[in-house]
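Two proteins were folded this term; both appear here.
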Amino acid sequence: MRTLAASAAALLAALALAAPTAAYDRPPLLERVAAAFALRPAEVRCPSMTEWINDPIWGMSWLTPQRTWGYTDMVNEHIVLHPTLCAGAASITNLELPAWERAVGALTLIHEAYHLRLWVYRRNEGEVECRAIRDFTRGAQLLGASAELANDLLPYALAAHARMAKLVPEYRTRKCKLPLWRLPMTP
């Protein structure tokens, strides 16, 4: 009995001292694309839904959880994206995923990558969001979309951008020149 109790105590002590395992993935494609906009190496974390729900930073946005699509930890220098948006950005060419998921995933990745960039507007949500929407089609193409697919996804990104700017004034800037959607037809 003492041996069993000692073994159980040793197991509990080992578990308590063990480093917590991360439930997130780090897709190389998303990290390469984020690095292109951050102009430096970028760590992108795609957590499980359980990890996302229990995330201490995501949890701080309890007043407006519907607006939290991702964040950049500027102290530890990494990006965390909502699991659905990670899947959308990573599978931008997968037509079985909803177009909004792929577009918002790409837009959020680009937005958060601009927060990693070492520039004067790093902490300015309006400037970061403006750059993200302006660079949406280039980002979508870096993720693997054709120019036509990037254009087809642009209206969803523009709608997400407009929603964010309407709900949260910090994400708005008057001088931002939005990209134009090209009608997908030939003469």
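Next, the second protein.
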Amino acid sequence: MIEGIEMVAATDRGRIRLHNEDCIAHNAAIGLAVLADGMGGHNAGEVASRIAVEVIASGIEGALVGSKPPRASASAASLISEFISQANERIYKKACTCRNLAGMGTTVVVALWHSGCVSVGHVGDSRMYRLRSHELEQLTHDHSLAQEHVDRGLMSLEEARVSSVRNVLTRTVGNAGYVVPELSTYAVAPHDLYLLCSDGLTDMLTDEQIAQVLHAFQGDMQRAAEALIDEANREGGVDNISLILARMPGVTVSGAA
């Protein structure tokens, strides 16, 4: 872990949805943030996202509490992968045994800070961004049909944002017997600000709009989180909106890229 991390979180059901199917958890003491955006009929999405967050957060916390934090990026990524896989198995089995939960699934994005780095694992289109030196960069790569079209040069990023297939996911947690999360590790710099969010935020706000809010309230993360929710609702709030903000301490930290 990295001492001195500040974290805040916010979630809102938005202006259209009757229920909030997002679920979030964060633990600054061990440098962990988890966000899931559930899907499925009735309350199945809520069930899937809650299972994912509970399994991943409790699993990683249990592995780290009372033991040395992971110093190698491979160890941190392995922990993330292990508990995303466990969450997938738990959700899939429950969906197979409960008729009213059939077909439920969820996206997930997990961040674990350690030894001057952050390891990230994700499935679906929930994202993680980094604001560094006034530049906002998306660190995750959406597992969606629209993103595949962008990757193949069939669609621009602007077209993808309004495409009818923008929310068609190509990889989810719980919809199959196994899942392969995408894993990455990045070096951390002093004062980095990280954002984990559901697509209820990114479908409503462009990266430029998100960056403007973060810049405007960078001295107050709670106000920044609330302002992002407010802006997404002002733009329509058609989906649940959830986010976690994590700011690095203003000291130099060491670690591999």
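The radius of gyration is 17 Å. Helices lie at 44-64, 73-97, 145-151, 157-162, 199-202, 207-216, 221-234. These notes refer to the second protein only.
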